[in-house]
Amino acid sequence: MPHAAWPVDPAAIAPFLLAIVLIELTPGPNMGYLAGLSAVEGRRAGVVTIAGITAGLLVYMLASVAGLTEILRFNRPLYEVLRWAGVAYIFWLAFDAWRGEKPTDFQGEDGRAWIHFRRGLVANLLNPKAALFYVTLLPGFIQTGHASPTVQALILGGAHIAVSIAVHGAIVLSSDGLARRLILEGSSPRTRRLFAVALVATAIWIAVETGR
């Protein structure tokens, strides 16, 4: 089959997949947050948070197709606002985890699920690295002679989201076993505080790594 008949350059598929797998396997804020949350609150909380993170990636992918994320590349003040808002948000999550307050009765399971979804969404939207992925890496794999740049961006972005879900799902599933052990040992309050400390470290990591 001629390469021109492919919507995406087939020679670019393998290196792109390798790049995004390595990126997703690199320890980062989403990975640390999911592992800690699933260990403390279980698999359901982790899965709902993955949905929020995925929604954030979808927003950035669509913004990239529309050319909006390109603004971050050249607008340093806007980038800095987004970067420090993300750091502040992770610090707030750490404070909330340290308090360890249980949801009130009227909140219910659906209300709690919405909280986890919203936190995953906001945390990813406030992560400039997620936006810059679609500005710096993805365009390099879009080639002429194939489908339109919009279609190629949607296909490659969809592949990134699929890999992200797989990696994050593996983290949640592996951390859920730890959750059961922690509950049996009755160490949930201590674990929440360890989670809070880990989030503080994550916030510092974001502040350092996203500076450019």
UniProtKB/TrEMBL annotation:
InterPro entries (UniProt xref): LeuE-type
Pfam families with a match to the protein in the record: LysE (PF01810)
Membrane topology note: Multi-pass membrane protein
Transmembrane stretches, start-end: 12-35, 47-69, 81-100, 121-142, 154-173, 194-211
Source domain of life: Bacteria
A GO CC term assigned to this protein in UniProt: plasma membrane
DNA-binding among keywords: no
Keyword Cell membrane: yes
Gene Ontology MF term list: amino acid transmembrane transporter activity
Keywords, comma-separated and alphabetical: Cell membrane, Membrane, Transmembrane, Transmembrane helix
Cellular compartments annotated: Cell membrane
Major localisation: membrane
Name of the protein described by the UniProt record: Amino acid efflux permease
Organism in which the protein naturally occurs: Caulobacter vibrioides (strain NA1000 / CB15N)
